[in-house]
């Protein structure tokens, strides 16, 4: 009996040691990728069902959807025209002001395959091609996170809620140079001087410092500002602008520059 | 045989949780199955605990999600059974204790309740199965 009990302790302790070693290795974030084919298989019938359900929609609602899609295409065509003219105007202004060009990023789409099951989904599994570690993930609303590991066409993404990510940010029209740090459920904004603290509701944008994140992407919305007595910096809390818990498609920005980021 | 089925179903549960985590409220399928096995047959910890470690690595990228809580069962249950006699009360307390790890990992209360709701019938069925085969 005593021998069995000792065996149990030895087994439990060795299991804990092995588990700690595995979780410390850089492969820990690659383990969820093992599940990617199974997740894809589970999601496939949902896609089939969505396609199949179109057969049961009546022609009137399909016609309405078609007309709405046509309107959207027209709106987007005019937006593209406007964007092109703004782009050429921007190029001319940059040439006039002699401003250095913003380093280039190659944008491509990524489909969300899986999310960690916690309420805020701190980690994502997305499918894309040509992504590499530290590429930046963006949704239609704002910054999502960075690519952590790549295995074939599947990548794991650490969102900006993860404590290991720090994002240099600024507020438009100010000289603020702050840093976003994930706290699991929320985001803390470091280095916000009490005298120049932005108001609650202000949206912070990536500043581009450090070269990892492209500048000008909406990253977080300030939810509370608490001046700390006797300290230079205020305690500022924020929430992500992007809603990656719902989005099925995201964009990946791969830096086209070579060398270390 | 039970181990193979439970591990296969647990893998399916992991995939299900990750594929539809935000589209519907789900129990932690894997944790409820593993917890049920552990409560039904405490000697199964030798394969249940590594499976729990894998569950934690997939969901949380570390091993501090549910594994440290489930380790309490093989360590405490034999001693509790020895002192109190084999019975349900200590198992219920340990089940509640282990399932609390979900709330600490930011799962919703509804998901936690669903996990318990799945765990209890699986536990009783497995306990019956083990009793018949003993």
Give a written overview of the molecule.
- The complex is a heterodimer of chains A (261) and B (134).
- Chain A has 4 helices and 12 strands, in the order H-H-H-H-E-E-E-E-E-E-E-E-E-E-E-E.
- Chain A has 261 residues and is an alpha+beta fold.
- Chain A has a domain at 104-261: Beta Barrel (Thrombin, subunit H), CATH 2.40.10.
- In chain A, the strands form 2 sheets. A 6-stranded antiparallel barrel of chain A has the order 1-2-5-4-3-12. In chain A, strands 6-7-8-11-10-9 form a 6-stranded antiparallel barrel.
- Chain A is globular and about 75 Å long.
- With 134 residues, chain B is an all-alpha fold.
- Chain B has one domain (2-15, 28-133).
- Chain B has 7 helices and no strands.
- The relative contact order of chain B is 0.16.
- The model of chain B has no long low-confidence stretch (mean pLDDT 90).
- The A-B interface holds A 5, 8-9, 11-12, 15-16, 19-20, 22-23, 28-29, 31-32, 34-35, 38-39, 41-43, 113-121, 123, 125, 184-185, 245-246 and B 11-12, 14-22, 26, 28, 45-46, 49-50, 53-54, 56-63, 67, 71, 74-75, 78, 105-108, 111.
């Amino acid at each position: 009996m005593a021998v069995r009990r000792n065996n149990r302790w030895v087994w439990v302790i060795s299991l804990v040691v092995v588990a700690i070693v595995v979780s410390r290795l850089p492969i820990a974030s690659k383990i969820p990728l093992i599940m990617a084919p199974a997740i894809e298989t589970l999601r496939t019938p949902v896609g089939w069902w969505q396609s199949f359900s179109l057969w049961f929609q009546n022609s009137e609602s399909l016609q309405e959807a078609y007309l709405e899609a046509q309107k959207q295409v027209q709106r987007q065509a005019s937006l593209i025209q406007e964007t092109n003219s703004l782009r050429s105007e921007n190029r001319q202004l940059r040439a006039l002001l002699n401003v250095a060009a913003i380093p280039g990023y190659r944008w491509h789409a990524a489909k969300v395959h899986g999310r960690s099951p916690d309420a805020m989904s701190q980690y994502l599994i997305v499918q894309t091609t040509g992504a590499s570690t530290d590429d930046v993930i963006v949704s239609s609303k704002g910054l999502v996170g960075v690519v952590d590991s790549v295995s074939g066409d599947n990548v794991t993404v650490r969102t900006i809620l993860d404590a290991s990510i720090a994002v240099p940010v600024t507020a438009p029209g100010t000289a603020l140079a702050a840093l976003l740090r994930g706290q699991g459920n929320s985001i803390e904004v470091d280095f916000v001087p009490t005298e120049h603290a932005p108001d609650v509701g202000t949206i912070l944008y990536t500043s581009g410092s450090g070269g990892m994140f492209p500048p000008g992407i909406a990253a977080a919305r300030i939810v509370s500002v608490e001046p700390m007595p006797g300290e230079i910096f205020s305690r500022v809390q924020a929430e992500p602008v992007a809603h990656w818990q719902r989005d099925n498609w995201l964009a990946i920005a791969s830096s086209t520059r070579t060398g270390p980021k | 045989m039970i181990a193979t089925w439970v591990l296969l179903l647990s893998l399916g549960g992991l995939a299900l949780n990750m594929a539809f985590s935000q589209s519907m409220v789900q129990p932690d399928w894997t944790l409820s199955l593993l917890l049920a096995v552990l409560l039904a047959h405490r000697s199964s910890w030798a394969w249940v605990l590594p499976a729990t470690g894998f569950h934690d690595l997939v969901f949380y990228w570390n091993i501090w999600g549910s594994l440290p809580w489930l380790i309490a069962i093989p360590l405490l249950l034999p001693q509790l059974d020895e002192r109190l006699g084999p019975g349900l009360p200590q198992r219920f307390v340990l089940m509640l204790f282990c399932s609390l790890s979900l709330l600490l990992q930011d799962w919703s209360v509804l998901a936690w309740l669903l996990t318990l709701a799945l765990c209890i019938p699986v536990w009783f069925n497995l306990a019956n199965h083990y009793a018949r085969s003993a």
